Amino acid sequence: MTQASPPAGGPRPEDRINYAEVLPQETKILILIGTLLGLFLAALDQTIVATSLPRIVADLNGINLYAWVTTAYLLASTAMVPIYGKLSDIYGRKPILMFGIVVFLIGSALCGMAGEPWFGNLFGGGMMQLIVFRGLQGLGAAALTSVAFAIIADIFAPAERGKYQGLFGAVFGLSSVIGPLLGGFLTDNISWRWVFYVNLPIGLIALAFIFSKMPILASGLKPKIDYVGAVLVITFSVPLLLALTLGAEVDYGWTSPTVLALFAGAIVSLIAFLFVESRHESPILPLSLFKNPTFAWGVLARFFVGAAFLGAILFLSLYLVNVQGVSATKAGTATIPLTMGLIVGSVLSGQLASRLGYYKNLILIGLAFMIGGFYLLSTLNADTAYSTVIVYMVILGLGIGPALPLFNLAIQNAVQRWEIGVATSAGQFFQQMGSTIGTAVFGAVLTSTLATQVPEQFRAAEAGQPPAVVAQLEATAKQAADAGGSRGGGTAPTFDSVQSQITAGFAKTFGSVETAVQGGNLSVLTQDQSLPAGLRSGLANIPPAALQSEQGKAGVLAQIKSQLDTAQTEAITSAKKVFDLSGRAVKVAFANTISRIYLISIFVALLALLSVLPMPNLRLPRKGEGQGGPKGEEGGEKRSGLASMEG
């Protein structure tokens, strides 16, 4: 395999400072703290906003744009990841990271002010303002997620990176616990605007650490910038992500001309991107990286891990809400067991990789745990105990955890120093694309499977029931089908609320009867089809003379009250049966649907594992051995043959 050549222009790569050797440990730790805080900002923002969205939508009157608050952030952050990675290789990690934090904080401040009077009708109103400002946030967040992982490779020797990469994986897990709790607290007790304002003090602290303690961390190379490639990355990824988002929506669908046009535009841009990148001296994404087996198989595995990971989080929450009965506001924190497993797996695998000097077997073990976790989750049903679900979540978290730090470690160890930024960001880009595509595919599976499962389970519930119950079940089944099986979650109605409605209805009926009896005119009631048939026929047989005295009216009212009480008891009994049967039908439908999604997730995780098998088992160089460059320091690609024999 040929050695990778540095981009033309500027100093030689061997002239670059080896920061892992020259920086004191105290400075490295301060840099690490600032970088972790910056990454925590981006990770927290993806979870803290979710719990406040219902309140935001209510205040800004934008339910029809609900999903775009997240979509705008995703589009901007995903498209910019590879661009920031390349720029950080050219200009250094510090200026790109600081730029990303500043843009992110400006976007956060503007998001918090969306809908305020001084913005007027800018962008068409408060909700559109929020969406635009969320896109600005995403532009900044892309720098945080792409550059942060590369900084570890700059300031720590390969053998030390594992234990610190594990901390980065733990940040994502920690944010998924803190985010929903903090978002709910701020929204309920202060204002949803503070969900965005809370980023400001954290970001300013991160900026202070980075500005005062971090060196520039530049490659020393000054190649020409691939402007065309940068534009083509955006014109490829944004239309693709839009097509995947819109294709899953009812208003569009996969055969919509808009969606098909977006897919076509993405394909044209991809072809043009490959053509341009193969000819530019310093491309945004060097195609030569794909000749490196560790990089090529590593980013492919991350694509599949991204698809499986996000699907696990999204659809596990859906199961907890619709089957286990967890409230929608607690759905995020209900996945804490999975998060704890993820944090433990991430930190432990990083420590082991640093001690053992190899990472491939740890990745394979983690993916095996992931497959096992998905298999266990595929056995979920409507009667699975919550304690059992917790065990399954922990196992899955232990499997997903190692994938977060170790794939970065593998890719960074296999490439040249001047390629670390672009290689790291490329891995992040593939993972985010996998998450988006996986969400679209799993969403389509959810919709199609529920469409058959809900009617099927209601038909099973109708078997052997009296006609009145069957009629009510059919009406409930239609409502569930129209609402997508309550797929959006929310708080399910309790039987107490149903019983209260029935009781209130009968009380209103008795009030109407009492008015008619006191007025001596029962003909109106005998024609009222909302009254029970037996009551109407009984009213028709009451002689007019019975209503001539107060005693007679009291007797008639007592008789009617007795009949209404009997009818009310029968209605409540029937409603309880319908409530239990329909609730059970929806739970079974959801449990069967989610278990089917996890069956597919097993296959996706298996593809990730199979992608890892061909990866060389490179040894992590010890401190002082270097990575790439002259003087006996062998580059990542050159090492791969020897290291694979060693492994």
From TrEMBL:
<dbReference type="InterPro" id="IPR036259">
    <property type="entry name" value="MFS_trans_sf"/>
</dbReference>
<feature type="transmembrane region" description="Helical">
    <location>
        <begin position="29"/>
        <end position="53"/>
    </location>
</feature>
<dbReference type="InterPro" id="IPR020846">
    <property type="entry name" value="MFS_dom"/>
</dbReference>
<feature type="transmembrane region" description="Helical">
    <location>
        <begin position="164"/>
        <end position="182"/>
    </location>
</feature>
<feature type="transmembrane region" description="Helical">
    <location>
        <begin position="194"/>
        <end position="215"/>
    </location>
</feature>
<keyword id="KW-0812">Transmembrane</keyword>
<dbReference type="Pfam" id="PF07690">
    <property type="entry name" value="MFS_1"/>
</dbReference>
<feature type="transmembrane region" description="Helical">
    <location>
        <begin position="135"/>
        <end position="157"/>
    </location>
</feature>
<feature type="transmembrane region" description="Helical">
    <location>
        <begin position="96"/>
        <end position="115"/>
    </location>
</feature>
<feature type="domain" description="Major facilitator superfamily (MFS) profile">
    <location>
        <begin position="31"/>
        <end position="480"/>
    </location>
</feature>
<feature type="transmembrane region" description="Helical">
    <location>
        <begin position="389"/>
        <end position="411"/>
    </location>
</feature>
<dbReference type="GO" id="GO:0005886">
    <property type="term" value="C:plasma membrane"/>
</dbReference>
<keyword id="KW-0813">Transport</keyword>
<keyword id="KW-0472">Membrane</keyword>
<feature type="compositionally biased region" description="Basic and acidic residues">
    <location>
        <begin position="631"/>
        <end position="640"/>
    </location>
</feature>
<feature type="transmembrane region" description="Helical">
    <location>
        <begin position="361"/>
        <end position="377"/>
    </location>
</feature>
<dbReference type="GO" id="GO:0022857">
    <property type="term" value="F:transmembrane transporter activity"/>
</dbReference>
<dbReference type="InterPro" id="IPR011701">
    <property type="entry name" value="MFS"/>
</dbReference>
<feature type="transmembrane region" description="Helical">
    <location>
        <begin position="297"/>
        <end position="319"/>
    </location>
</feature>
<feature type="region of interest" description="Disordered">
    <location>
        <begin position="620"/>
        <end position="647"/>
    </location>
</feature>
<feature type="transmembrane region" description="Helical">
    <location>
        <begin position="331"/>
        <end position="349"/>
    </location>
</feature>
<feature type="transmembrane region" description="Helical">
    <location>
        <begin position="597"/>
        <end position="615"/>
    </location>
</feature>
<protein>
    <submittedName>
        <fullName>Multidrug resistance protein B</fullName>
    </submittedName>
</protein>
<feature type="transmembrane region" description="Helical">
    <location>
        <begin position="227"/>
        <end position="248"/>
    </location>
</feature>
<keyword id="KW-1003">Cell membrane</keyword>
<feature type="transmembrane region" description="Helical">
    <location>
        <begin position="254"/>
        <end position="276"/>
    </location>
</feature>
<dbReference type="InterPro" id="IPR004638">
    <property type="entry name" value="EmrB-like"/>
</dbReference>
<keyword id="KW-1133">Transmembrane helix</keyword>
<feature type="transmembrane region" description="Helical">
    <location>
        <begin position="65"/>
        <end position="84"/>
    </location>
</feature>
